[in-house]
Amino acid sequence: MKSRREFLKHFSLVASSGVFSRPLLSWASSAAEQGAPAIAGEDRMIVRSLRFLDLEMPPEFADSWLTPVPHFYVRNHMIEPAKIIAAEWTLSIGGQVEKPVTLKIGDLSRLEQHSVINTLECAGNGRGFQNPKVPGIQWQRGAVGNARFSGPRLADVLQRTGVKPSGKHVMFRGLDQIPGNVPPFVRSIPIEKALDPDTLVATHMNGEPLTHHHGSPARALVPGWVGAASCKWLTEIKILENEFEGNFMKPGYRYPNHAVAPGGTVDPNDTHPLTGLSVKSIIAGPSDGSKLKTGSIQIHGAAWAGEAEVVKVEVSTDSGQTWNPARLGNEHQHYAWRLWSYRWTPPGSNEYVILSRATDSKGRVQPATADWNPSGYLYNAVDRVNVHVQA
Amino acid sequence: MFKLRLIAIGLLWIFIAAYAGAQTSTVELPAGPMQSKARTGCAVCHDAHILVQQRLSKAAWGKEVDKMIKWGAPVSPSDRDALVEYFSNNFPPDKPPYIAQRSAPNKR
Predict the structure, then answer these.
(1) ipTM for the predicted complex
(2) Percent of chain A's residues with pLDDT above 90
(3) Which residues, listed in sequence order, are joined to residue A37 by a DSSP beta bridge?
(4) Any idea which architecture A86-273 has in CATH?
């Protein structure tokens, strides 16, 4: 265990390396006067934390097939690394391989490029709706976004080294700066998922090079899985015989094997690592608490199901007594969210509760109440907004 | 030598507190005898946002504070209980939810 002095030494090194002096968060005086922090590259995001930087997409932005990068949620477990110069960046690959290699950005761009439109969602999205409350970022609807990620397939990258038959898990390490004795944000995925032709070492997002907040110059992209699998600022890939053992694999990012009574405790040995996302829909509009005029109202949003496909979204405008099929958007791809809409003419002036409920190709249906768990993972209860309609 | 080191550590914490203050000018921890120690104890990693949004029982606050101390948060053992008390008094489960700020529009 590090002594307090070593910790302070580490911190002072971090401080002197310029992390705190670079304008990650620039405070425009006008914005500060209005109480809104200006964050480079980010637009009207819900601020869950400035340090570490954690930003949530407001639900009204879930209205486009591809989420613009300034609206795409940001989740950092640690201090962001100082800006990385792509030309100086390296990715080392070792462990249970035939021939360890160190790759540069040019080596990645020379491999065949592949794109996957993927809905990335933080495992803790919706934690703020859990009851009883659990510690952690109190995300509501928007720790999710849908983007086109591009880069070489991880399988092609691993072909450069060869994988020994003993290699069963693939560990990712990012360049996140680790404060104090905090365990590093290192996780692993099983080799089968790593070799899936849609698992990438992504260098681009929506056709542009990754921005710093999203892991530039390269990140893992593990489609359909919780966001934590898609390690940012990737610098090391290690092939392991066993699942990586570290805080962010256990006790972090695990789900109980059995239902837990709300507020109950779970034996860490009776849990499994989180993998694929749940089936879920959110309402982008109308916004919760909005006041609307009578007449035709467009209820719309997005729905996703991790590795499965969304097959149906239903909308209720009477607190769940009756459900009506929403129209699904034309754009769809395996791991991408599906936009949906439902045109509604309220019968008169009143308070209404609007709900949305998605069903996927595995037969999973968004539940009325999400399963409670001590870390608030995979919250996916039917979404709900209250509106006031007046003539 | 020891004195110099103490002064250096003191200056460092002043720097950390000043830095934390600069980044939390719109969100601040509530006033109270532990406000300053809460700020310096958490500021290496966190600004106030992540704290003010929590709604936890005293036992849950205790668990979080202990985890952070284990991970290097500079909290003196003699301050631990008072810090847990401060957080659980200010951010209990029945307090109304925190309304988060939004970042400024991107003018690009």
Answers:
(1) 0.89
(2) 91
(3) none
(4) Alpha-Beta Complex (3.90)
